[in-house]
């Protein structure tokens, strides 16, 4: 059994090309290592996440925990430095921008309060949730194997604001159904499901 260790990476950081060492559906353990689901032993290991996808030497991991329904903000306003790009894989940067603002985000607070031996969880961007949806069948089966929470029917909240216009950016955040892949906009003060995601970089 081969274990790989990882470190956090900002999505704005330049990533050098490398071979991918980890496959979608691999399991992140509490000691910050990643193994194949076939090597997982619940009596000896604690799973905290499942690999959603890889890009060069970065990986994205979705938490085994569904945190419940939370609102993007407690008021209808925009947050500076949050990317409106629906393809961007930058939940970590968006979450950081929300934290640096004077806005209160119940969704981000729920993620910060997540009890996990692995740190750095973020509110995923819509691009990251789209990557999750593309592999949700595989990841869902792994969640069953490691006793992770299932993905629910209700839409999942992203950290991406609706950048269609200045007004929509103030009012709406993007969310996605992980059962259909349908992307919609939700009022920032309306609750949606929250599932943390983690971006990591191979050392």
Q: How would you sum up this structure, described in words?
A:
- This protein has 203 residues and is α+β, with helices and mostly antiparallel strands.
- The protein has 5 helices and 11 strands; from the N terminus they run ββββββααααβαββββ.
- It has helices spanning 91-100, 106-112, 126-134, 136-145, 166-171, and strands at residues 4-8, 27-29, 33-35, 47-55, 58-63, 68-70, 156-161, 172-176, 183-187, 192-194, 197-202.
- A 6-stranded antiparallel β-barrel has the order 1-3-2-4-5-11.
- The protein is globular and about 50 Å long.
- The relative contact order is 0.24.
- The model is unreliable at 1-20 (pLDDT under 50).
Specify the number of helices.
Answer: 5
Secondary structure class reads alpha+beta
Low-pLDDT runs of 5+ residues are 1-20
Strand order of the largest sheet: 1-3-2-4-5-11
- Biggest pleated sheet: 6 strands, antiparallel, barrel
Gyration radius from CA atoms, angstroms: 16 Å
* Average pLDDT taken over every residue: 89
Percentage of helical residues?
10-25%
State the end-to-end CA separation. Answer: 19 Å
Please trace the helix and strand order, writing H or E for each element.
Answer: EEEEEEHHHHEHEEEE
Strand-residue proportion: 25-35%
Number of strands: 11
What's the overall geometry? globular
Gist?
With 203 residues, this protein is α+β, with helices and mostly antiparallel strands.
Helix and strand topology:
Elements: E1 4-8, E2 27-29, E3 33-35, E4 47-55, E5 58-63, E6 68-70, H1 91-100, H2 106-112, H3 126-134, H4 136-145, E7 156-161, H5 166-171, E8 172-176, E9 183-187, E10 192-194, E11 197-202
Antiparallel strand pairs: 1-3, 1-11, 2-3, 2-4, 4-5, 5-11, 6-10, 7-8, 8-9
